[in-house]
Amino acid sequence: MKKIRALLVLAFVVTVFIVPSRIQAANRGELLAAQGSEELDIYKDQHAPDGRFIPGNRGVVKDTKTGLEWFAGPDKDTTWDEAKAWTESLSIDGGGWRMPTRDEVKGLYTKGTGAHNVSPLFMTAGGFVWTGETVGSSHAWGFCLDIGDEYWPRRTYSETARGFAVRSGKR
Fold first, then answer.
1. What distance in Å separates the CA atoms of residue 80 and residue 102, rounded to the nearest whole number?
2. Which residue range forms the structural domain that includes residue 30?
3. Is the same domain home to 129 and 145?
4. pLDDT per residue as tens, the chain (171 positions)
5. Domain count of the chain?
6. Exposure on the CB side of residue 3, measured as CA atoms within 13 A
7. Which residues contact 136 (CB under 8 A, 6 or more apart)?
8. Do residue 54 and residue 36 come from a single domain?
């Protein structure tokens, strides 16, 4: 009976704590495993239902319509300055990342897709994405994925706000 209880506790710990953290780590571009010299990517067989967004290496999402490559930042409330600093320091998959423009973020919006009207490959719980475009020294443009409209809140705003990085697709 003690062995069964210990196995149940172990199964609970793995299911509740370890597996979700491994999935989150993979979402941030970390590989879950390596087999020989071939890197395994948990996204390699996933794609958006319309085929527009496809998974690239290490959590990069490729947009087949625009040729852009995207990388969703940490899934936590983020101010504009935090999003900018994160984007500028991002070196994953060769670097070259920047904050998106207003039009680029608007282009991600597809009403009825995923939890926030954006491809599920972005795996974000946030409904607002910052852009690199500022309004004066205290405000910046962002796009609300939940309702499909753009706003320019204070750069200190962070509730449900996320940073996404974008770059031209690799040739």
1. 14
2. 1-42
3. yes
4. 666 665 555 555 445 444 443 344 344 443 322 333 334 444 444 555 568 999 988 899 999 999 999 999 999 999 999 999 999 999 999 999 999 999 999 999 999 888 899 999 999 999 999 999 999 999 999 999 999 999 999 999 999 999 999 999 864
5. 2
6. 0
7. none
8. no
Q: Are residues 37 and 52 in the same domain?
A: no
- 83 and 29 in a common domain: no
Same domain for 73 and 12?
A: no
Q: State the distance between the two ends of the chain, measured CA to CA, in whole angstroms.
A: 59
Q: What is the distance between the alpha carbons of residues 75 and 60, in angstroms, rounded to a whole number?
A: 15
Q: Which residues are paired to 90 by β-bridges? A: none
Rounded CA separation 165/105 (Å): 10
CATH classification at residue 112:
3.10.100.10
